[in-house]
Amino acid sequence: MGAAVLLYDRQQRFLGKVLTDDHGEFKLLGLIPAPYSVKVSLVSFVPATKEILVLPGMRSVLNVNLSTLFSTIQFAYPTFESGNIMSDDWKWVLRSAPSTRPVLRFVDPGTASAAAAPSPDSDPASTTAHAAVFSETRGLLQLSAGESSISDGAGMAADLGTTFALATSLYGNSLLQFAGNLGYGSATGSPIAAFRTSYSREIAGDTPEISITMRQVLMPGTMGASSSGPDSPGLPMMRNLSASIDDQYKITDNVTLQYGFTMDSVTFVGHLNYYSPYARVKYEDENSSFEIAYSSGNPRPNGGGESSPDSAQQVDGSLQHDIDSLGVFPRVSLLNGRTEIQRADEYEIVYSRKVGSRTYSGSVYSQDVTNAGITMVAPAGFFAGNVLPDLFAGTSIFDAGNFQNNGYAGSVTQSLGSNASVTVIYSDNGAFTADAHELVSNSPDDLRSLIRSGRRHAITSRFNATVPHAGTRIVSSYQWTGDNRSIMAGNLYAADSMQPLPGFNLYIRQPIPGFRRHVEATADIRNMLAQGYLPMNAVGGQHVLLVQNPRSVRGGLSFTF
User: Fold this and answer.
1) What are the angstrom distances between the C-alpha of 492 and each of 399, 497, 535?
2) For 314-442, where are the E strands, in sequence order?
3) Burial of 128 (0-12, 13-18, 19+ CB in 10 A)
4) Cα(36)–Cα(31) distance, rounded to whole angstroms?
5) Which residue from 351, 373, 354, 366 is spatially nearest to 494, judged by alpha carbons?
6) Coil, strand or helix at 517
7) For a pLDDT cut of 70, what percent of the chain falls above it?
8) Do 558 and 507 contact (CB within 8 A), yes or no?
9) 463 CB contacts (<8 Å, ≥6 apart)?
10) Which helix (H) or strand (E) holds 322?
11) Are 19 and 2 in contact (CB under 8 A)?
12) Which of 190, 233, 213 lies closest to 327, judged by CA?
């Protein structure tokens, strides 16, 4: 009873701490499938470190036996080549064991230094243990290709093409990660490149991380027509440089403070610099959690939305997080020829509790959004100087102005055995609607005057399952709203992970037999029924379509090593 159990991931990053109960038992719940290290320590006992592999949908049992100090004494005859045989764990035991305290004494630092000095005749390299510069190296490579909906011209989400992520341990106590992608926009053929480097190191139980991300998109000349007229030579290259610092502090065993900020610099037509801080305080015990979050500026890569179903089940979540970060481009729009960035200030409260096989969750939020960018499908040259071609698809981004969005959501998740679950979500969110669907003139101010910020209710069902033995993972969701001709603003800056996409969505991940799950095929279908489109009729028989979640189909291969 009372033994401290510390959990570490593959990079030896501290993840959490629990204490054993009166039966000497402990539980660590909600872990993603991955290898972990568990260190158990108790006063007067020799600390023990064990490694365990957590598998999907299974409970892994780890038995740890702690030995007393004198039951583990071994006689050793050191030589000059053996170096220091006194490990840090042994030093801790000797200092904390009551039976050895009376015989401990202070040693003069000069004497200790002289005693530890190597022999002049010995090899200095043999007396000092050097950790390997690089160890625990692993990587992730993803190849993807997609085709957007052609019938309605709504485009699709960003297609990263070829994406890679590499992580390695540096000198055994730091983590260095690289990630990048090279590809083309799904409908425009625009070259896209992004690279990210991050460094983290555990310091007194905390793991601060510093990262730098560079993104670049080249606009082809044919896209300039939608922004500056049919005779425009095209738009300049867009560059984005982001520098982030993320850290978390363990206030108590159950309360964690996570905080950080990002400095962004965007060069496109003009030059913009802005600052995006965030902070989250979370209380978590065995069956419940309570979180208060604040964010400003850009949404975090691990914020709300179902942008990456891989994240929750990836072999190495840190690699998938880097890949997700590469795709978080600033939401850039044009307003009267000026470059604007979508930003928001948000406050959110999230509560979750597990009761038996069910998990109940609820969240409320309030956000103020400036320069909200809405995806729009319009004829070439429409709203010249006031719309920006989408960086990845054959659509445009329209600046709808500023709005305030308040909402709440509640969900119930029912586990169906160890490999499946069903979730039902009810939400009340802000939405964009239109007072009329006829534009009096082809003026962007006329369209902004018609767009209103209203409210819409939505009910979402979500099914998540993993097929035993085959390892096939299936995630499907459908969101029903009372009015399909409205754009749900949603909560893009949410701390709550359960923020579903509109319409019908399907994601399938299938391990390829014979590769020990190192090669997997993926299929991702978004908004299959093309719901959530807001049509508008313009002057001269032209049509404008406002879109929240464009319909898209994407497939790919994922390699882990």
Assistant:
1) 16, 10, 23
2) 332-335, 338-341, 343-355, 358-370, 373-377, 387-389, 396-399, 403-415, 420-434
3) exposed
4) 10
5) 366
6) coil
7) 72
8) no
9) 420, 421, 422, 423, 474, 475, 476, 477
10) helix 317-326
11) yes
12) 213
Q: Which two tokens stand for residue 115?
A: 């005693």
Q: Tell me what pLDDT residue 74 has.
A: 44
Given CA atoms 380, 385, 386, 388 in this order, what sign does their dihedral have? positive
Do 234 and 345 meet the contact criterion of CB atoms below 8 Å apart?
no
Tokens of 493: 């800056």
Question: Which residues, listed in sequence order, are joined to residue 335 by a DSSP beta bridge?
Answer: 338
For residues 161 and 185, give the distance between their C-alpha atoms in angstroms, rounded to a whole number: 8
Give the 3-state DSSP-derived string for 119-147, with helices as H, strands as E and coil as C.
Answer: CCCCCHHHHCCCCCCEEEEEEEEEEEEEE
The two structure tokens encoding residue 233: 């030579």
Give me the phi and psi of 81, to 5 degrees please: -80, -15
Indicate the pTM of the whole model.
0.67
Residue type, 421: S
Could you tell me if 375 and 546 are in contact, meaning their C-beta atoms sit under 8 angstroms apart?
A: yes
| Banded model confidence at residue 206, pLDDT cuts 50, 70, 90 | confident
